[in-house]
């Protein structure tokens, strides 16, 4: 800690040449005195001296922080949070004058005016709201433009996991993006990226927005199904990341809607970074152009001992396994298969033979179609 008597002559020399407010004067000597209050130290160093002119560095910006504090309080009034961060935009001329002064008097290792403003506002906001400033991972972040007198607020995203059961046919898993913004979020779609709520994604999104607020919802699906498919059993798992939520920690209970039910809802740290390993139990209705006898159907068990090769138009190839397969014959050219397969199994292509080997059309040596297939259960490994 520097001797006060050594600092006073330097401070006097500076304030004789430059009009400085208490905040700016105290700031440039705060390191030597380890003072937490720049204003208090500046007032002490001035020893009663008062200038009638505006501060050379900040132009009395520190005197007007109450206005920006109110902007922060107003913009965050609907948000629930415990930690916050602040980013500051100020006039370049203020930073230039601050740099000039610090360089001229070789004042090293002290907070710049921009940092000092952020710290002072943070201290006042923290006191008003009983929250804590966190520069690394805050729940909300303010961007204060002191030049244009604007305050923007961004809330840290949250992620919810759950499962959905679809007991009615005719509803897509995914929702069509807003025509106006292609899913980015705009005023037309209330910044949600979707303007309708008539799918599994739409129903869950609408519930999430009502519960937590927020703008867009980004889904990670554990597999998918056709519009005509049912999803039964314990349901299909999903993860949804909510951008800019208002609320963060709420009690989540199972929900039943007209189209779907959602259950096992809980807040999680993040969506999976890698695809989850899962199995699907699928019931497939199959019709054939020619009759298929029981002897041929019994051979379906052979498909559990060979890999199913899937070829894509891009040239990429992958393999999936059928772990179990059962059948029930209804008519000579119609039967039902219940099989357990690895996640992502291409059901329709497996039936028709579209770049999948082996496939049922080749297996029975007759064209096969599937009018519908349902998911009886999805098991995450």
- The average pLDDT is 93
The main sheet orders its strands as: 6-7-5-9-8
Question: Level of helix content?
Answer: 25-40%
Distance between the termini: 61 Å
Q: What would you give as the CATH superfamily of the largest domain?
A: THUMP superfamily
CATH architecture group name of the largest domain: 2-Layer Sandwich
What Rg, in angstroms, do the CA atoms define? 33 Å
Count the DSSP helices: 10
- Please give the CATH class of the largest domain: Alpha Beta
Low-confidence parts = none
What is the string of helix and strand elements? HHHHEHHEEEEHEEEEEHEEEEHEHE
Major beta sheet summary: 5 strands, antiparallel
CATH topology of the largest domain: THUMP fold
Domains (count): 3
Written overview of the protein:
By secondary structure, this protein is α+β, with helices and mostly antiparallel strands. The protein has three domains: 4-155, THUMP fold; 158-268, Alpha-Beta Plaits (2-Layer Sandwich); 278-380, Alpha-Beta Plaits (2-Layer Sandwich), CATH 3.30.70.3190. Helices cover 27% and strands 29% of the residues. It is built from ten helices and 16 strands. The strands form four sheets. Strands 6-7-5-9-8 form a five-stranded antiparallel β-sheet. Strands 2-1-3-4 form a four-stranded mixed β-sheet. Helix 2 (22-33) packs across helix 3 (38-46) and helix 4 (65-75) crosses helix 6 (113-129). It is elongated, with a radius of gyration of 33 Å. The protein starts with a helix and ends with a strand.
